[in-house]
Specification:
Elements (H helix, E strand, L loop, with lengths): L7 E5 L2 H4 L28 E3 L5 E3 L13 E2 L15 H15 L3 E5 L2 H4 L10 H16 L3 E7 L5 H7 L6 H16 L6 E5 L9 H4 L6 H25 L4 E7 L5 E3 L4 H23 L4 H9 L10 H7 L4 E5 L4 E3 L20 E2 L5 E2 L1 H15 L3 E5 L17 H19 L5 E7 L19 E3 L11 E3 L1 H11 L7
Parallel strand pairs: 1-5, 1-15, 5-6, 6-7, 7-8, 8-10, 9-11, 10-14, 14-15
Antiparallel strand pairs: 2-3, 2-4, 12-13, 16-17
Helix pairs in contact: 2-4, 6-8, 8-11, 12-13
GO molecular function: beta-glucosidase activity
InterPro entries: GH, GH_1_N_CS, Glyco_hydro_1
Protein name: 6-phospho-beta-glucosidase
């Protein structure tokens, strides 16, 4: 049995964490470009100014309770790790050659929206930005690597946020569709696999994920509706431009894998509720309508979704071809023990599991459970587009990077994926690790939290040569791909 013969092995990155060149080639600023550096103990923030000229930094990534007249800007005196990232913009040929050496069948990446439409509101695209991705796709195809492109990976032209609050305003749909139509037409003969929104259920983070200032539930759910409509429209337009396109949605599935803390029925019910708040996003994109449980949730919480005539029909007509997921961890939850307590026990480690330095539970069995639940729920092919372990890799005295913990992590998770295929009958299209090369961490802005098979010489202060070096795990993953997942030793 095992994986199908056309299984898509590879790796995944995001432009805002990897590309760099933030103000080159006609690119405009994005929401991620005003996010400062953080750490595992300190959240990132966003910089903004007020009409009186004063400069400020938000507390955390949700960006709530902003004063009137706030405008997000890049300001002197702050560190913005996404500006340079690890400079794929100038190293793409070198990096793609390494991906080819690994044996990649696919490379999942994102197109930076503000590189194509700098403010998001232009009527004509930036040709220099389009040409950059032409070059990247041509380089990938030269090695037989299939591009897999995410259209919206936590990156919105910053001017859309400053003008009207980004996805909180329906006008953003038209801007996004203009972008989608442009890249679909431009790359229709170079890219077959697409995804609309990365981890769409992480819109709860507001600014970091979607450029939406504020995290109140009404604003977030209205913004989510706008993204649902935009996704469905993009699917329909993409299929019209090229019927061979495969267009998927993408879910942060770790947030769906929620265990009750105990067998207390109240805890079990809470686990279902927490998971449903996340599944809802895939329900709409895979099934084409709002599920009844979410409508009741809106009703109980006084949430009113403003729809336009035809929205429901658009959702039905624009369902996706496959579901893509990220999986890093499982979670546990409990019914609130006291008024105001957070039922999602993010700071509590499951006693049956080990955890990383950053408190991420390592749960390969949870990965299998997640795959089974998703396939059983939607009966659509599943594409794993993010799975990996962040660790503080060190260069040893021999000049090498020895990372047996990374090999152990991937071995156990790939075996769990094989079990999901062979034992549970899940249709898995492929698997791209996060990330094949060290990049900036989205959550903390660190370089120290490394994921790659390729080490990049850069530290949290931005120092380093950017030299690429293979870690021990590089050769291991190379063997895994060459054997189509049979050799995990």
């Amino acid at each position: 049995m095992g994986f199908r013969s056309d299984f898509l092995w590879g790796g995944a990155t995001a432009a805002n964490q990897y590309e760099g060149g933030w103000n080159e080639g006609g690119r405009g600023p994005a929401n991620t470009d005003v996010m400062t550096k953080g750490s595992k103990d300190q959240a990132r923030g966003a910089t903004y100014t007020l009409p009186d000229g004063s400069r400020h930094l938000t507390k955390g990534v949700a960006v709530k309770d902003l004063p009137e007249g706030a405008r997000f800007e890049v300001l002197d005196g702050y560190e913005y790790p996404c500006h340079d990232a690890v400079d794929f913009y100038h190293h793409y040929k070198e990096d793609i050659a390494l991906f080819a050496e690994l044996g990649f069948k696919t490379y999942r990446m994102s197109i930076s929206w503000p590189r194509i439409f700098p403010t998001g509101m232009e009527k004509e695209p930036n040709e220099e930005g389009l040409k950059f991705y032409d070059n990247v796709f041509d380089e990938l195809l030269k090695y037989g690597i299939e591009p897999m492109v995410t259209l919206h990976h936590f990156e919105v032209p910053l001017e859309l946020t400053n003008q009207w609050g980004s996805w909180a305003d329906r006008r953003t749909i038209d801007c996004f569709i203009r972008f989608c139509r442009t890249v679909f037409e431009r790359y229709k003969n170079k890219v077959k696999y697409w995804m609309t929104f990365n981890e769409i259920n992480n819109i709860y983070f507001g600014f970091l994920s979607s450029g939406v200032p504020g995290d109140d539930l009404q604003t977030v759910m209205q913004a989510a509706h706008h993204q649902f409509v935009a996704s469905a429209m993009a699917v329909k337009i993409g299929h019209e431009i090229n019927p061979d396109f495969k267009i998927g949605c993408m879910l942060a599935a770790s947030r769906c894998t929620v265990y009750p803390e105990t067998c207390n029925p109240a805890d079990v019910q809470k686990a279902w509720e927490q998971a449903s708040r996340q599944y809802f996003f895939a329900d709409v994109q895979c099934r084409g309508y709002y599920p009844s449980y979410q409508l009741k949730y809106f009703e109980r919480n006084g949430i009113h979704i403003q729809k336009e005539s035809g929205d429901d029909e658009i959702l039905k007509e624009g369902t996706v071809d496959y579901i893509a997921i990220s999986y890093y961890r499982s979670m546990i939850t409990a019914a609130p023990k006291q008024e105001g307590s957070d039922p999602l026990l993010l700071g509590v480690i499951n006693p049956y599991l080990e955890a990383t330095e950053w408190g991420i539970a390592i749960d390969p069995m949870g990965f299998r459970i997640t795959l089974h639940n998703l396939y059983d729920r939607y009966q659509l092919p599943v594409m794993i587009v993010e799975n990996g372990i962040g660790a503080a890799d060190e260069v040893a005295e021999d000049g090498q990077i020895h990372d047996p913990y990374r090999v152990d992590f991937f071995r156990s998770h790939i075996q769990a994926m094989k079990d999901a295929v062979d034992i549970d009958g899940v249709d898995v299209m492929g698997y791209t690790t996060w990330a094949p090369i060290d990049i900036v961490s989205a959550g903390t802005g660190e370089m120290r939290k490394r994921y790659g098979f390729v080490y990049v010489d850069k530290d949290d202060e931005g120092n380093g040569s950017l030299k690429r070096s293979k870690k021990d795990s590089f050769a291991w993953y190379q063997k895994v791909i060459a054997s189509n997942g049979e050799n995990l030793e």
